[in-house]
Amino acid sequence: QVQLVESGGGLVQTGGSLRLSCAASGRILRINDMGWYRQAPGKQRELVALIPRGGSTRYADSVKGRFTISRDNAKNAVYLQMNSLQSEDTAVYYCNAAALSSANAYRPVDYWGQGTQVTVSS
């Protein structure tokens, strides 16, 4: 199995910055796509940013130019630098990884972290 643990959420004022981190552990063979999603109260979970193992990153239109996703394959980690935060960014942020493991060596399985709360106050 693969476990994802997020950190870095918290309370920040409008215009401030936060950096989220997510580390994957377990019997990992390879991680393909990694990404960040978020879910605000009463709304569906949405993609924030995606970073393939190789290839171009992808961002939700609402965060382009403000958020930057990066990853460290040696550490099985993904990060989200969030700048110019707005109240609309308030949500629980979830880390996602499509990974091959010793239990699923031929088809990647989606794994999720437990979520970290980001609250932006005006």
Question: How are the SSEs placed, and which strands pair?
Answer:
Blueprint: E1 2-7, E2 10-13, E3 18-26, E4 28-39, E5 46-51, E6 58-59, E7 67-72, E8 77-82, E9 91-101, E10 109-112, E11 116-121
Parallel strand pairs: 2-11
Antiparallel strand pairs: 1-3, 3-8, 4-5, 4-9, 5-6, 7-8, 9-10, 9-11
Describe this structure in words.
With 122 residues, this protein is an all-beta fold. The protein contains no helices and eleven strands. The protein has strands at residues 2-7, 10-13, 18-26, 28-39, 46-51, 58-59, 67-72, 77-82, 91-101, 109-112, 116-121. Strands 2, 4, 5, 6, 9, 10 and 11 form a seven-stranded mixed β-sheet that branches. The protein is elongated. The chain starts with a strand and ends with a strand. The mean pLDDT is 96.
Separation of termini? 40 Å
> What is the strand content?
over 45%
> Would you list the SSEs in sequence order as H and E?
EEEEEEEEEEE
Taken from the alpha-carbon principal axes, the silhouette is elongated
Number of strands: 11
Helix content: under 10%
Major sheet size, sense and barrel closure:
7 strands, mixed
Taking all Cα atoms into account, the compactness measure Rg is: 14 Å
Count of runs of 4 or more consecutive helical residues = 0
Strand-pairing-aware structural class: mainly beta
Residue windows where pLDDT falls under 50 for at least 5 positions: none
How confident is the prediction overall: mean pLDDT? 96
